[in-house]
Amino acid sequence: MGKQTDADRGGPGGADGGAATPRPWRERTTWVPAVAVLVLALCWGRDLPGVLVAVVGLCLAGAVLSAVHHAEVVAHRVGEPFGSLVLAVAVTVIEVGLIVMLMASGGDSAATYARDTVFAAVMITCNGIVGASLLVATLRGRRVAVFNAEGSGGALATVTTLATTTLVLPTFTTGSRGPEFTGAQLAFAAVASLCLYGLFVTVQTVRHRDYFLPVARTGEPLDAVAHAVPPTRAATWWSLGLLAVALVAVVGLAKVVSPTIESGVETAGLPTAVVGVVIALMVLLPETLAAVRAARGERVQTSLNLAYGSAIASIGLTVPVIALASLWLSGPLVLGLGPVHLVLLALTAVVSALTVVPGRATLLQSGVHLVLFAAFVFLSFSP
């Protein structure tokens, strides 16, 4: 048997009735989020010199690692696919708040912040996270990654529909100038996105939960063969609270360093869309690390749940909130993608379908997704 983690023993301090005395405040994953929030409070709204930017970067990295730890504790208690849903929704809710704050601050690029960030999230999750997870899974142990085609296929179909409805159609509609929705079209897209997100969550957690459970190579759900003792209820609530604190620190510190990123992008003469890409990369680090760690444990379905679930939440929650915020935010709201991004999105949809339909993937599929992700990043810096 492998070495047990704190989560396997019932969280920090051991399971119920154990001899060890719980001292969760001594854990690094407890005080690092607290320090990160303190740094956030001290640095919020200030121009930071280079040294303090480096300190903020270290706190950001520590908050990301802490968020992954506490998400895994919660996931182990509630099981899949609820655990993946907790992290995806928590990060996306705070990400939406970050987008609204950036748009409210105004500026020439504010009109495209929502589009750039949401599209970056879709490409990062569907290509970056999926590719990295398949790479890790196929390089370890046996050389084939196994997952549930029904659940992954349904999630991918949801991502594709949401992305097409909100990011592709505005480019071709004629109701308003430019790649924008009219008020009625934006309201329809918001309601449709919210309804489709709610339907997906219902199917994932209630009606067809077994489609989203990790599977062993024999086809048996891993939940049925898992023997690790889940954390206690107290440890779970403790981790859930610290997860929220860590995620607030992650997104808040990302906002703190965003002026440095913006000035660096402007100085280097790069497109403004690079800001959205870099911020999305930082915000999605918890999901990325959690997905890769799940893939290392041959729980590829958990990795796909995190990837596609984050993409669905990013669109399904962001568009309705932005639609409401547009009632009081000044300036246009550009959602339609340009030609290069339309091609990347279409290619991602086709390649992803070919990956998930068989329910098995090899090193080749991981390489294809990672090349698509690299192409997206490169073309963001050099359009």
TrEMBL record:
- Domain Sodium/calcium exchanger membrane region, chain residue ranges per copy: 51-205, 238-381
Q: Which intervals of the chain are annotated as region Disordered?
A: 1-24
What stretches pass through the bilayer? 51-70, 82-106, 118-139, 151-172, 184-203, 237-256, 268-285, 306-329, 335-356, 363-381
InterPro entries annotated for this entry? Alkaline_pH_Ca-Antiporter (IPR052946), NaCa_Exmemb (IPR004837)
Q: Where does this polypeptide localize?
A: Membrane
Q: Keyword annotations for this protein?
A: Membrane, Transmembrane, Transmembrane helix
The answer on whether this UniProt entry bears the keyword Nucleus reads: no
Note the topology in the membrane.
Multi-pass membrane protein
PANTHER family in the cross-refs = SODIUM-POTASSIUM/PROTON ANTIPORTER CHAA (PTHR37958), SODIUM-POTASSIUM_PROTON ANTIPORTER CHAA (PTHR37958:SF1)
Q: What is this protein called?
A: Ionic transporter y4hA
Annotated organism of origin: Streptomyces changanensis
Q: What is the lineage of its organism?
A: Bacteria, Bacillati, Actinomycetota, Actinomycetes, Kitasatosporales
